[in-house]
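Hi, here's the filled form for the chain we discussed.

Project: internal
Contact: R.S.
Residues: 271
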Amino acid sequence: MEIDSFTELVPLLSSFWRTIPAAQQLKLESSLTLLKQNHQLSQLYFLGRLEAHSVAYLLAFGTAGLDVFRERKFYYSRNAVDWILLLEPTDWTEEWSRLWAEFTGNASFAFKMRSLAAGSDVVVVREQDRLWYVIHAILREAAGVPRGALRMSTERDVVLNPFFRGLTRAEMVQLANYQHFRRPERPAEENLRGRKECDLSFDVFDRLEVDVLPEGKSFTMRVDDSGRLVVWSSLHWLGLDFFHKADSNVYGFFYQGDGRKNWDLPFMVEL
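And the returned structure, exactly as it came back:
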């Protein structure tokens, strides 16, 4: 949730049984506004809350330029007031998603894991580095936005589309109308294939329905009683929900979970 729209978006969390206490909401809005100013960020998003053994990590990310993904910075806080910058680990790998131990709440705690490669040594991963990886993985694999919310500029920058006016009620319940919140990783030809109508500026982004395995079964959808707000939930990163209000530019995502990936998903759905 972008901090400039925080007050407007927080009430929508109740539609999918998430809450932010009023006192914490005020702290977050104040501290994140200061963080955005002090770090000269053009966009700053509150991602959510990661539950650890002894404390909860509050998570945020932002960028200094117009490009939503270039030189992105990750932050965490324990008290909703003081924010700590997370530096990208120099030796991280996607195998870190196999770490299953609970987060402790101690940022300097060291987890141990062995690589899948035969004869590999034990790898030590600090909790602070693992926290960076979890934010990175959630944003890459689970966070989504409505089609048209992001736009590729002529300079190849990914920017927020100022002309986005939302999906219709019929469009918002179709997974094909949602895209990953990331730079395109698949060839543009694949992302454009199968669309009756397409716009090269915003249809080049990776579609949720064909990109995450099992295809078309990695997210669940529900619509609120008004029929105007849709919520999509990731089954890979349980606790990540993204939402969109029909015929408006109101959308966002929120995470509340334990930072562990659901590797059992292929056994939980009918393939």
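Let me know if anything looks off before we file it.
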